[in-house]
Amino acid sequence: MIRSIFLMIALFSLIFCKSVTGQNKENTPNILLITLDDMNWDSPGVYGGIIPDLTPHIDNLAKEGVLFENAYVQAPNCSPSRVVIQTGLYPHQTGMRGFYYVKDNFNTLPEILKDNGYFTGVLNKPADTSISPNFDKYWDDRTSIKGAKKRSAKNYSELLEGFLLKANKKQKPFYCVVNIADPHKPFFNDPSSIKLGFDEFKPSKMYTIKDVKIPEYLPKNARIKKEVLNYYNSVKRGDDCVGEIIKALKSSRMADNTIVILLSDHGAPFPFAKSSVYKNGVKTPLIVSYPSKIKSAIESKSMVSSVDIAPTILEMTGSSIPKELVGKSFYSVLTKKKEKISNYVFAQFDETAGGTPRPSRTVIGKKYGYIFNPWATGSRVFISASTYHATYKTMANMSKVNEDAKKRFDHWKFRTIEELYDYEDDPHALNNLIDNPKYKDVVIELRKQLKIQMIKTNDYVLPAFEDKSNIEYLNKWMQTQIKKADARTKSLRWKRFKNNNGPTKNNSELFNINNAKFN
């Protein structure tokens, strides 16, 4: 009741008071950026999702805005991906290759917007959204959500209502990042979710095993299908959160002058998706809605990625774009002044949340995707978050009794140094074409594009790429990377309570990209 009274007062002030707030400035839009955690690009209905009415709120947002069919993130794991959005730089450029803090010797998106009069905020996951622990530099308002409330749709709307009241009180336009926890593990109805009390907050509609299909990149198995069901019920709960967030925005009457951007931080937490640079790891749903200024459309020609979001927001808000940003604004695509800004996107995986390095690089075009894995010489196993979940464990068991299952599982664990996929005909990366002579020219061209990108962005993986055919060199190079990563786990300030070397509470240093000790 009290909250409602305050909200009415704020709305009265917003509508009737002759102030100079950003909301009243026609050329100073608000920005609401919504992320869903671990949602695969093809889960929403508007992206061809298999379950009817699974994501009505995301679908409605897409109908009001521009839906990008070829959008990607730069990293298939949480913190590196989220920091790209706030910096307009690749993970190896900032040093945010893992789950530790880095020295921010450059202006970030929220800092620039703050300097231009914006009220900035992050609701949930402030650590993973920030490059350094100096949160006050970036955010005027921040909230960490603990425990089961991360899964409460109503909680997100209440938090946004509170943020909007603060922004209005400051008489400023706002930039707000809302990070929805679903469908991140544990999924709804997972044993650990039940134990932790997360299932107190149920999705608005419950699906059954008959409603779901196992993705083509995973083997057919009843236990895997059960985990896939739990994933989709978590996607539903995530969409419920989107609905409550949009409802709160519209109730504030700021919606007409607010740009809403929605995406996922990376693919679903299964093998061959999250933590991989396959299409299912780095492709994302991307929707930009600003009905009062931008016509709704489906954008299929341009290749865009999360590194482009910061310059796009800066251009849309009339802010100067620092020359250091390597991303390209796609505002001209939104306004139909250009058909596309790029023919390729680039993505990378560097290391796990615990600090295990397994660097991979990819270049993806409209049809083909090329991957370079300097670690994949046959002597190392790939480790990721999915290693500890039901699907991975089931695949491991299946590989003991089924030759086809073993072949697929071994590929996930060991890969090959180079991979090539025809994503147009093989979207789930089932057929590696790297040794097929028919695609020799494609490989040459994509290697060329990746090398240009690595030189341009001063990628530490470049020496390995240039000597990719020398197994002995790659093994030594990886040994060096492992030693450096181990040093980071023992000294750097981490974003998690523990890493490969145990508790991280006593670590204090920040990563410096120019420090040879860690670089």
Number of strands: 16
Oligomeric state, counting identical vs distinct chains: single chain
Largest sheet: 8 strands, mixed
Strand content: 5-15%
Radius of gyration: 22 Å
Helix content: 25-40%
First CA to last CA: what distance? 54 Å
Count of helical regions: 18
Overall body shape: globular
Name the poorly predicted regions: 1-25
Spatial arrangement of strands, main beta sheet: 5-4-6-1-7-8-2-9
Mean pLDDT: 94
Question: What class, by secondary structure content?
Answer: alpha/beta
Question: Could you name the key traits of this structure?
Answer:
519 residues; alpha/beta; eight-stranded mixed β-sheet; four-stranded antiparallel β-sheet; 16 strands
Structural account:
By secondary structure, the protein is α/β, with parallel strands linked by helices. It has helices spanning 2-16, 56-64, 78-87, 91-94, 109-115, 126-129, 135-138, 153-169, 191-196, 222-251, 279-282, 309-316, 331-334, 390-398, 403-414, 440-456, 462-466, 471-491, and strands at 30-36, 66-68, 71-72, 119-123, 141-143, 174-180, 258-264, 286-289, 297-299, 304-305, 345-351, 357-364, 368-372, 418-422, 498-499, 502-503. The longest helix is centred in the middle third of the chain and has 30 residues, at 222-251. The radius of gyration is 22 Å and the shape is globular. The termini are far apart. The relative contact order is 0.15. The model is unreliable at 1-25 (pLDDT under 50).
